[in-house]
Each structure stands twice: as structure tokens, then as C-alpha cells.
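Appendix B, example 12.
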Amino acid sequence: MAAHQALAACDSVVDRLHKMCCEPDRSPRMLAIKDSIASIQAELNAAEGEPASLERALSHLMDVGGQIGWLQIGCCAEARMPLYAEALERLTAVQLNINETIGNAH
């Protein structure tokens, strides 16, 4: 599933953002995003045996997107904006792939 690759790419972008961040109190939020990404990965892995896991993955994706958006709006460095945009693009790719898989693609 292409969703796995897009999610792994998003995780890598979040790692880069975390390493570049100059604001220590943002670190727990970034670590929470990484935990959420791991939860999404677990739901994707469970999808073959439990199709409802894809619905849960979509719910987690929306939460992660909101968290990344929150961090982006509060970021003080314009140079990191492309990384936030890339992370959101990767999450969108995951969402589109899941919706295609469950028959909700438009």
C-alpha cells in the first residue's frame, strides 16, 4: 500500500522538523506527532485482518494534520514552512490512498 511509504516519508519530515526546532517546549508536541504516526502505521498494518482499522487510521490522520498545522502556524522560521507543507502533503497522500482502498475515492 502506497500509504505506508507516504506515512514513512511524513515521519522522516517530522524528524527533520524536530531536529531543526529552536523552541524546546514544541518538542513534546513533535514527539506526540511521531507517536500518532506510529499509531496510524499500526492501523494500516492491521487493515488486512480488520478493515475498520482504516477508518481509525483516517481519524488519526486528521488529528496529526491538526497537530502539524498548529506547529506550522506557531513556527518562527519561514525556512521550515516547506517542511510543514511536505508533511501535510504526505498525510494527504495517505488519506487519498486509504479512501481509494475503502472505496471512498472521488
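The first helix runs from residue 2 to 20. Residues 2-15+26-101 form one domain.
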